[in-house]
Specification:
single chain, 2 domains, Neuraminidase, four-stranded antiparallel β-sheet, 24 strands, mainly beta
Length: about 375
């Protein structure tokens, strides 16, 4: 059984495993160029004809993954981005804030700093699940999109529960799944639990034999499977991406690389999964095929990870780590057009992009 306090520290700090080679190659923080889109007017009928043909091709391309209009235009179709922030990188205390991806305005969801983390939006954008860590024990909580009605979902007590982390919502919003670590003598040492999103009553238990450090759960848009990152027992924290049916069936490894694979995130249509691999954001088909690198932050940072799709599927937000400190970035789902969202001495990480609810939520 792994040391619980150490395990919680790993989750709370939410940085890539320290075995990564990139940690030994840390370099000074550098600038990142941001691409700007240019626009041209149509001057003649001949140019108009050509432009119409180009527009037709572009509209067709919008059906493909990641094709999108300008950053501002597509961001306007999505909600705010919730994230975790601390003024003391690597140590906390942590709070949950949200940022307007267009204007960059930041506001607090949790009024005081504490052990807050793992923000995860419901599919209608009306509620946010998150964790609160107190004395090395994490529990699942839920609040409304404006920060009101903050309450614990499911109490966690030994030996059956040492910590609950990484909440993720079912597509219909009725259920929250999360990873649970239990103590010696418990029936299942590491497992995925599901609970009623309103009452907190347990629904299903998915055992994960032979695994440890289970984290970063992501429920598929069709509700059939849950992706997560984990390490086989005895593998010295070598993380891979796994899939398991939401009914507990079909557990299998989706990636098996020489690197560290973490932070799986489903595209809104369920066709692809973005994930972190060492210093880069990668993309693969939902069956694990066609793995390709979208963006690498080397040589200016330690790692890029924690991808979060915009609800319309055109953009991906993620964290970049510079030594102890992290900032938030957004890029097209093709890996182009990088935009920096935060650039402060504080530590910002774990982005979660809100689907627009019925009533507009303004940060």
């Amino acid at each position: 059984m792994p040391d619980t306090k150490h395990w919680i520290g790993e989750i709370r700090r939410v940085r890539p495993p320290e075995l990564w080679d990139e940690v030994e190659r840390r370099v000074a923080r550098g600038g990142i160029a941001q691409e700007k889109e240019s626009r041209r007017g149509l001057q003649t009928v001949a140019i108009l004809a050509v432009a119409l043909a180009v527009v037709g091709t572009a509209l067709y391309a919008l059906h493909d993954l990641g094709s999108a209009p300008s950053f501002e235009a597509t961001s306007a179709q999505n909600g705010v981005i919730a994230f975790v922030q601390t003024d003391d990188p690597g140590r906390g205390p942590w709070r949950i804030d949200m940022i307007d991806p267009i204007g960059g305005r930041i506001s607090d969801l949790t009024t005081t700093a504490g052990g807050f983390g793992d923000p995860a939006w419901s599919r209608d954008g009306s509620r946010l699940a998150y964790t609160v860590t107190t004395h090395a024990v994490s529990t699942i909580h839920v609040m409304n999109a404006d920060g009101s009605d903050q309450h614990e979902l499911d109490p966690c007590g030994p030996p059956e529960c040492l910590s609950d982390v990484s909440p993720t919502w079912s597509p219909d919003g009725s259920t929250i799944a999360y990873a649970r670590t239990s103590g010696a003598g418990a029936v299942v040492p590491e497992a995925i639990f599901t609970a009623d999103a309103v009452t907190g009553a347990n629904r299903e238990l998915i055992g994960l034999p032979g695994m440890e450090f289970v984290t970063q759960l992501a429920w598929s848009p069709d509700g059939s499977t849950i992706a997560f990152a984990a390490s086989p027992v005895g593998s010295s924290k070598r993380f891979s991406i796994y899939l398991v049916g939401s009914d507990g069936s079909g557990l299998h490894r989706l990636t098996d690389s020489a690197g560290q694979d973490t932070s799986p995130a489903w595209s809104p249509d369920g066709s692809h999964i973005a994930f972190g691999r060492d210093s880069a954001i990668n993309l693969m088909s939902s069956d694990g095929s066609d793995v390709r690198e979208l963006y690498s932050c080397l040589p200016t940072c330690v790692s890029a990870y924690e991808p979060a799709w915009s609800p319309d599927g055109h953009l991906i937000a993620f964290s970049e780590q510079f030594g102890e400190q992290r900032d938030l970035f957004v890029m097209d789902a093709t890996g182009s057009n990088l935009h920096r969202l935060t650039d402060t001495p504080a530590d910002e990480f774990e982005p979660a992009w809100q689907p627009l609810p019925q009533g507009e939520v303004t940060p």
